[in-house]
């Protein structure tokens, strides 16, 4: 069924179990999350002001240095966030979409106590022109709050494939409310075809090393994850994408919990056919654990996030602790619940990748 099978123990401090023969163990000293590695375009938006005003900027591509440049000049008539003080402290932030994680955000300095800020700053991206032309520029204006409770003031989105690159002059553009697609999370990143199975403690078909466990340790179950293929990945380069899948069972984000597939090169529809087995599961753990599968583009210096899924009950809690990674969608929750109710059976699913 698969080209490779990886096995790893899923263990909690409260169980105080010894490692299985031939497998790795990882005690979970703390609850942590890897979800903070990828931020939403609208992360930290606590404001409720209506977008208004205009922004002046120019776009250019430096062929010699292979650099995309956004010259942010100024804004006019921005919304007032603190009405009592008549104050806004605005700055401008840019992303290249759809893969905001790959290129990262750029932002200007903060101009305090003004709704007509002047920046005259250049935000730069090192990127090949051919890659740039399949991106969109998202430029947004924000009020900076000392406590991080920033407020969205407006945005503009530009399709760079249709941009007139001979136009290098500064021009004024009206700021618009958030795009509905971004607010509602409509951000197509592809779909993952996979199957999962839960093997409860004491089930038939256990291998010999399970039988050799110490009698002091109660038998535990296994979660099997069969990553088959992914379709319609983001094409980051003209040649395609070099992708692989990472897997963690949260709350464990240690290296011992980490598993991954091989890299499939130059293919936006990669076939992985890779099975991962986590043992050390008790039935009650299924309510508090979450299988996180993320797809990444592989490059020499760094890997770039493409999308992911989280399989769990999506309750927001893990062992009584509030966690942000227990955020499974309805489809993901239904998939996990079906696995829980059909022990020893493969459950097949086709789930959309999303930002985490």
TrEMBL record:
<keyword id="KW-0472">Membrane</keyword>
<dbReference type="GO" id="GO:0005886">
    <property type="term" value="C:plasma membrane"/>
</dbReference>
<keyword id="KW-1003">Cell membrane</keyword>
<keyword id="KW-0677">Repeat</keyword>
<dbReference type="GO" id="GO:0070382">
    <property type="term" value="C:exocytic vesicle"/>
</dbReference>
<feature type="domain" description="C2">
    <location>
        <begin position="51"/>
        <end position="173"/>
    </location>
</feature>
<dbReference type="GO" id="GO:0006887">
    <property type="term" value="P:exocytosis"/>
</dbReference>
<keyword id="KW-0268">Exocytosis</keyword>
<protein>
    <recommendedName>
        <fullName>Synaptotagmin-like protein 2</fullName>
    </recommendedName>
</protein>
<feature type="domain" description="C2">
    <location>
        <begin position="203"/>
        <end position="326"/>
    </location>
</feature>
<dbReference type="InterPro" id="IPR043567">
    <property type="entry name" value="SYTL1-5_C2B"/>
</dbReference>
<dbReference type="InterPro" id="IPR000008">
    <property type="entry name" value="C2_dom"/>
</dbReference>
<dbReference type="GO" id="GO:0042043">
    <property type="term" value="F:neurexin family protein binding"/>
</dbReference>
<dbReference type="Pfam" id="PF00168">
    <property type="entry name" value="C2"/>
</dbReference>
<dbReference type="InterPro" id="IPR035892">
    <property type="entry name" value="C2_domain_sf"/>
</dbReference>
């Amino acid at each position: 069924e698969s080209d490779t099978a990886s096995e790893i123990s899923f263990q909690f401090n409260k169980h105080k179990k010894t490692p299985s023969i031939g497998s790795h163990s990882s005690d979970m000293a703390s609850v942590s999350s890897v979800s903070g590695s990828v931020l939403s375009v609208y992360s930290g938006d606590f404001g409720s002001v209506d977008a208004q005003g205009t922004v002046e900027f120019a776009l250019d591509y430096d062929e010699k240095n292979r650099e995309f440049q956004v010259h942010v000049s100024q804004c006019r008539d921005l919304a007032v966030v603190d009405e009592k003080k008549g104050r806004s402290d605005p700055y401008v932030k840019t992303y290249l979409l759809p893969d905001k994680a790959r290129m990262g955000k750029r932002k200007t300095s903060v101009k305090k106590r003004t709704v007509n800020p002047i920046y005259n700053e250049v935000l730069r991206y090192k990127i090949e022109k051919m890659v740039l032309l399949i991106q969109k520029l998202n430029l947004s204006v924000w009020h900076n709050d000392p406590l991080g409770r920033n407020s969205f003031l407006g945005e503009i989105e530009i399709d760079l494939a249709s941009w007139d690159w001979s136009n290098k002059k500064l021009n004024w553009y009206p700021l618009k409310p958030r795009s509905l697609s971004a607010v509602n999370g409509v951000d197509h990143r592809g779909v993952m075809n996979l199957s999962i199975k839960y093997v409860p403690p004491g089930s038939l078909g256990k291998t010999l090393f399970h039988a050799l466990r110490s009698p002091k340790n109660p038998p535990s179950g296994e979660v099997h994850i069969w990553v088959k293929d992914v379709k319609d990945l983001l094409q980051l380069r003209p040649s395609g994408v070099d992708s692989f899948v990472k897997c963690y069972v949260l709350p464990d984000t240690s290296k011992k919990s980490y598993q991954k597939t091989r890299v499939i090169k130059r293919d936006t529809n990669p076939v992985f056919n890779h099975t991962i087995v986590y043992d050390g599961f008790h039935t009650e753990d299924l309510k508090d654990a979450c299988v996180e599968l993320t797809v990444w583009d592989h490059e020499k210096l760094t890997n770039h996030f493409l999308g992911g899924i989280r399989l769990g009950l999506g309750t927001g809690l893990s062992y009584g602790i509030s966690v942000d990674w227990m955020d499974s969608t309805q489809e993901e929750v239904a998939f996990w619940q079906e696995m829980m109710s059909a022990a020893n059976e493969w459950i097949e699913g086709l789930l959309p990748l999303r930002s985490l």
